[in-house]
């Protein structure tokens, strides 16, 4: 019971990382594709403005997931980290390049510096979710055996299911980001940008749907156990995801930019949860289950209690953070550097 | 003395390439050494920024307000880099040391979970603090900085709790190499926790305070003696001067703790080979086969320091077999260097106190003129920042190197915890290159921040229209 609660808490954290951190990654992709300095200025400015106050908070979800995994399911953490250390090292480097470059670009004034740091930020925003997605694919297709570095270090993450996971991760990030950004642009009255990102959301939405459909064939051939789970136990979630994906496209066509945020986010969350439900109770398919790998109840109980206490502080703070920057600001007080 | 048994081999049964073990240690060592400076700034800089912002709100003094703005900007850059380099460490715990995490991950998970929450709070309020200057009243804005400081100190506490556990493993029973009966609270609050966490938090405040003041000491020496620069030098230096004497006592407490709980580590720190009383204190020196050579010996010094009596018995390295002894020269020199830097910082702090008292008695200008003592004082002020960082790094070397060959004191060897996958050396080089690039970029960006032209780090709403993002 405690183990399942810990797993659920971890999965909620993973969902939040996918929905919030994922959108930040996707914004990096759109930054990459925004074009030359002149043409790309308006979308880049919007991206910078939208993710500036929140990206660090969004990033912490990843730390939360990592810590929950090692606390709640230590042997699984050890097995995944040791077998998949190549994509995970690259993920770590991508995270460092992305965060640092984003902060550096904000304080750069010259074009070449902004280009350089912007390039690092944008490129690492694309490769990092790819590697994370391929790690998910590796676990889901049963390529991580228990023990230390017992799986294949190369084919563990270079295989059809991992490739599918990586591509889907990049696409869903791009889709979410385009949806959020079009809403942000509309809110600040930049209608051209709203249209710009709405078109991109439509295109990535369609492409994501096509890749997900094609992915069914890939999973059938490469990860039959996962395929079976997705077409049986997790089928309702798969259907929900597909339906909400179509609904999101329809809402985007009609420029309903607030409601599409909800449907798009739920569609992506449903993909993640369908993976979890399809695989449950296996942590490392086919053999290691939740029960096999869970920490002792004293540990799980203490960690969950700490989380519950922390949530009392965290939830209102998070709500304040997100709502503060969705409102229009009060008139400037002039306490800035210009006034000083 | 702690029983040092040849512990269970944990999960790692495969033979490890020695080269890869060294690569893993090197990678962990320098990513930690890199991050720890940022982590200290993350604890201390928000406090300094809040102090000057508070003074600015109270007095309306524009110099304080400008300082608050500038430090907040530096804080934003440093926090971003610190956050990502800290994330790398949590990955590396698994990438490099799966043998530790697979067995003991659940034992030390609790403080890390709490650290995660504290870090969350920090990130949330940092986002608010940096970006909402013009959305909140000055007083409310000031208050949003308080959770950053509290959560920063709490993060440091939780993380060091986990490290303290590696020095004093508690809160579980081992049965056939498997961990049973875990008591995560006993693991977290082990005997090493109080001295180690206190020592670290004070060190963090010292590093942030002295590094900040040394930046302004350079400017003062170059003749920029306006109120802005004088305050930028004085405010952090006063904080450092308050903390340093306290640190001296805490450091003594920490050393006394080690003498009692980790005598082999103390023996390596002080270069003591044979158990006995009337043990001299040896300053500097290089480890030879029978003792430290070329060092300065103070008769009975160590016995007096540890037990206030020359008859105090100090255990030597001979208490354990040679393969369980930490490397003496490195640990000993690092310890001496840390103490030397600490004493230097104490001397500067005392000088600051004397200067302050003289000025109060005589009145007169503060940090003005070109007198030789003042220039000497400022020159030493420039050195305080690097000295604090050297002390910090040396302190960590003593803690980590002095625990060798154990990753978990007396239970699990580093050798048995490392990832058995090949190719860690390649990963090391990749990581070295990335960190080198990041170091260059960070220093470059921070230097630019000190330039005069205002650049919004966190563009507020009214900046966005004209703010040039290419």
TrEMBL record, chain A:
Major localization listed first in the record, in broad terms: membrane
InterPro entries reported for this sequence: Cyt-d_oxidase_su2
Stretches that traverse the bilayer: 6-33, 84-104, 116-141, 161-181, 201-221, 233-253, 260-278, 298-322
Keyword Membrane: yes
One Pfam family cited in the UniProt record for this chain: Cyt_bd_oxida_II
Keywords attached to this entry: Cell membrane, Membrane, Transmembrane, Transmembrane helix
Annotated localization: Cell membrane
Membrane association type: Multi-pass membrane protein
Record flagged with keyword Membrane: yes
Family per record: Belongs to the cytochrome ubiquinol oxidase subunit 2 family.
Entry protein name: Cytochrome d ubiquinol oxidase subunit II
Native source species: Streptomyces cynarae
Source taxonomy: Bacteria, Bacillati, Actinomycetota, Actinomycetes, Kitasatosporales
Automatic annotation (TrEMBL), chain B:
Chief subcellular location: membrane
Key word Chaperone present: no
Alphabetized Pfam families for the sequence: Cyt_bd_oxida_I (PF01654)
Subcellular location: Cell membrane
Keywords: Cell membrane, Electron transport, Heme, Iron, Membrane, Metal-binding, Transmembrane, Transmembrane helix, Transport
Membrane topology, as annotated: Multi-pass membrane protein
Domain of life where this protein originates: Bacteria
Transmembrane segments: 32-54, 75-96, 108-130, 142-166, 200-219, 231-250, 333-355, 376-398, 418-446
UniProt similarity note: Belongs to the cytochrome ubiquinol oxidase subunit 1 family.
Protein name: Cytochrome ubiquinol oxidase subunit I
Species whose genome carries this gene: Streptomyces cynarae
Biological classification of the source: Bacteria, Bacillati, Actinomycetota, Actinomycetes, Kitasatosporales
């Amino acid at each position: 019971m405690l183990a399942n609660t810990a797993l659920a808490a971890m999965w909620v954290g993973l969902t939040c990382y996918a929905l919030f951190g994922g959108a930040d990654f996707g914004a990096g992709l759109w930054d990459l594709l925004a074009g030359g300095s002149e043409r790309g200025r308006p979308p880049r400015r919007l991206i910078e403005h939208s993710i500036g106050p929140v990206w660090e908070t969004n990033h912490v979800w990843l730390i939360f997931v990592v810590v929950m995994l090692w606390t709640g399911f230590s042997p699984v953490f050890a097995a995944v980290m040791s077998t998949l250390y190549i994509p995970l090292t690259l993920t770590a480097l991508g995270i460092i390049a992305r965060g640092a470059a984003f902060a550096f670009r904000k304080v750069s004034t010259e074009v070449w510096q902004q280009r350089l740091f912007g390039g690092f930020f944008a490129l690492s925003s694309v490769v990092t979710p790819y590697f994370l997605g391929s790690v998910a694919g590796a676990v889901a297709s049963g390529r991580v055996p228990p023990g230390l570095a017992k799986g294949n270090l190369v084919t563990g993450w270079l295989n059809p299911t991992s490739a599918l996971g990586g591509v889907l991760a990049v696409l869903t990030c791009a889709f979410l980001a385009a949806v959020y950004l079009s809403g942000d642009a509309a809110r600040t009255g930049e209608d051209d940008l709203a249209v710009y990102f709405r078109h991109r959301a439509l295109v990535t939405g369609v492409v994501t749907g096509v890749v997900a459909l094609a992915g069914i064939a890939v999973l059938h051939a490469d990860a039959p156990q996962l395929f079976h789970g997705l077409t049986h136990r997790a089928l309702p979630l798969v259907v929900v995801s597909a339906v909400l994906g179509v609904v999101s496209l329809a809402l985007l066509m009609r420029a309903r930019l607030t409601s599409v945020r909800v449907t798009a986010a739920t569609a992506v969350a449903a993909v993640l949860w369908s993976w979890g439900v399809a695989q449950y109770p296996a942590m490392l398919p086919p053999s290691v289950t939740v029960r096999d790998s869970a920490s002792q109840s004293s540990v799980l109980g203490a960690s969950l209690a700490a989380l519950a206490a922390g949530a009392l502080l965290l939830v209102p703070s998070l709500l304040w953070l997100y709502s503060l920057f969705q409102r229009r600001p009060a008139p400037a007080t002039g306490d800035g550097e210009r006034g000083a | 003395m702690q029983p040092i048994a040849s512990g269970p081999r944990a999960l790692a049964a495969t033979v490890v390439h020695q080269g890869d073990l060294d690569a893993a240690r090197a990678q962990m060592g320098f990513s930690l050494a890199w991050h720890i400076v940022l982590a200290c700034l993350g604890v201390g800089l928000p406090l300094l920024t809040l102090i000057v912002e508070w003074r600015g709100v109270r007095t309306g003094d524009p110099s304080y307000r400008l300082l608050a703005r500038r430090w907040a900007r530096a804080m934003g850059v440093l926090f971003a880099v610190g956050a990502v380099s800290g994330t790398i460490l949590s990955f590396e715990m698994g990438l490099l040391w799966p043998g530790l995490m697979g067995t003991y991950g659940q034992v030390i998970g609790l403080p890390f979970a709490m650290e995660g929450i504290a870090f969350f709070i920090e990130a949330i309020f940092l986002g608010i603090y940096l970006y909402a200057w013009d959305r909140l009243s000055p007083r409310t804005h000031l208050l949003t900085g308080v959770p950053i400081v509290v959560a920063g100190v709490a993060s440091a506490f939780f993380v060091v709790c986990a490290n303290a556990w590696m020095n004093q493993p508690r809160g579980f029973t081992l049965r056939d190499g498997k961990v049973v009966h875990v008591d995560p609270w006993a693991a977290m609050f082990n005997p090493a926790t109080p001295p180690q966490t206190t020592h670290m938090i004070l060190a963090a405040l010292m590093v942030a305070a002295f590094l900040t003041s040394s930046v302004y000491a350079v400017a003062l020496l170059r003749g920029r003696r306006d109120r802005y620069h004088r305050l930028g030098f004085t405010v952090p230096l006063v904080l450092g001067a308050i903390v340093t004497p306290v640190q001296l006592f805490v450091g003594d407490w920490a050393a006394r703790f080690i003498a009692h709980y980790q005598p082999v580590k103390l023996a390596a720190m002080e270069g003591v080979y044979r158990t006995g009383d009337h043990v001299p204190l040896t300053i500097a020196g290089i480890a030879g086969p029978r003792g430290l050579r070329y060092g300065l010996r103070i008769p009975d010094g160590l016995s007096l320091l540890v037990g206030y009596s020359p008859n105090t018995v100090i255990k030597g390295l001979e208490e354990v077999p040679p393969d369980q002894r930490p490397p003496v020269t490195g640990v000993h020199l690092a310890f001496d260097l840390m103490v030397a830097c600490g004493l230097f910082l104490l001397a500067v702090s005392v000088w600051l106190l004397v200067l302050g008292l003289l000025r109060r008695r005589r009145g007169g200008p503060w940090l003005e003129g070109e007198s030789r003592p003042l220039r000497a004082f400022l020159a030493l002020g420039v050195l305080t920042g690097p000295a604090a960082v050297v002390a910090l790094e040396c302190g960590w070397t003593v803690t980590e190197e002095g625990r060798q060959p154990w990753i978990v004191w007396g239970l699990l060897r580093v050798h048995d915890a490392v990832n058995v996958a090949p190719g860690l050396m390649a990963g090391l080089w990749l990581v070295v290159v990335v960190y080198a690039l990041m170091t260059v970029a960070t220093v470059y960006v921070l230097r630019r921040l000190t330039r005069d032209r205002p650049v919004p780090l966190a563009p507020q709403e009214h900046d966005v229209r004209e703010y040039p993002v290419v």
